[in-house]
């Protein structure tokens, strides 16, 4: 087997084991392969091993790969920060965006999404642990932003995403992920039809799954050590 195929099997085994330990169906957790800085060939190898959903952080790099792989059955997720002057790239080329954290971005995505493409699937990024350098809306403002996004045409609000600071151990990771789940359930109780809780990465996917994650974002455990960022892209 190719290394990426082997790595995907290992990651899927980790997801299944975590689901078993948490009393969950492994089918309830979707794997999003984070392919930033890796070339189109790596994505083709992952696709051959059954992986269809890919996450990109750097917009222009992602757009270039989307163009190179057009026609393949791939689902593209924007998981990096979205600046207001880059929203057209997201609205035009991606299927999902996980990192909406303010109304201005959502409005521009709504205006720039071609109705012929169908709805852009949206998650609100939440700064769940209050990190001063972290992107994301503060939890106490998430409901207001959800109301605003839900009213916009061209978008479908699917859930919330978090990227907390690295935790020292399983218990600490579990605690912060449970806070995200609590917010997710609050929004569901408020009437939002949410089905996506995007949290957990290579290092903490077990804690995220125990906390109720429905989508884990895994890069290095699938593709290996990251190459240097493409020249001209932000680090």
Structure overview:
The protein has 235 residues and is α/β, with parallel strands linked by helices. It has a single domain (3-21, 28-223), classed as Alanine racemase (TIM Barrel), CATH 3.20.20. Helices cover 40% and strands 17% of the residues. The protein has helices at 3-22, 40-48, 59-68, 87-93, 103-112, 142-150, 170-189, 205-210, 220-223, and strands spanning 30-34, 53-56, 75-78, 96-100, 120-126, 155-162, 196-198, 215-218. Strands 7-6-5-4-3-2-1-8 form an 8-stranded parallel sheet. The longest helix is centred in the first third of the chain and has 20 residues, at 3-22. The chain is globular, with a radius of gyration of 17 Å. The protein starts with a helix and ends in a 12-residue tail after the last helix. 42% of the residues are buried.
CATH architecture annotation: Alpha-Beta Barrel
Let me know the CATH homologous superfamily. Alanine racemase
How far do the termini sit from each other?
A: 32 Å
- How many strands, which pairing sense, and closed or not: the largest β-sheet? 8 strands, parallel
Order of helices and strands: HEHEHEHEHEHEHEHEH
Poorly predicted segments: 230-235
Which secondary-structure class do the elements indicate? alpha/beta
Domains (count): 1
- CATH-assigned fold name: TIM Barrel
The rough form would be described as globular
- Give the number of helices: 9
Mean pLDDT over all positions = 94
Order of strands, widest sheet: 7-6-5-4-3-2-1-8
Strand content: 15-25%
Tally of extended strands? 8
* Level-1 CATH class name: Alpha Beta
Helix share, percent: 40-55%
Radius of gyration: 17 Å
